[in-house]
Amino acid sequence: MHVKRPTERRADALAAVDWVRIDPMTDDDIARQIAANPDVPADLSDAPADGLLLAACHSHFVRS
To answer: Which DSSP string do the residues of 13-64 spell out, in sequence order?
Structure first.
């Protein structure tokens, strides 16, 4: 049995991407797709660090 190494799996994953569709996407296109997907968690990258734990706890209890 051949077990694929991480570099082989990475190469397979990159080869499976439809780069012709992905390359022309703008940041606005990506933001619209994220906003339209209800399964994507809130973007907390700009949140102050002291609010991250509270936000994580809140989203856990809201979804449960």
So the answer is: HHHHS-HHHHTT--HHHHHHHHHH-TTSPP--TTS-HHHHHHHHHHHHHHH-
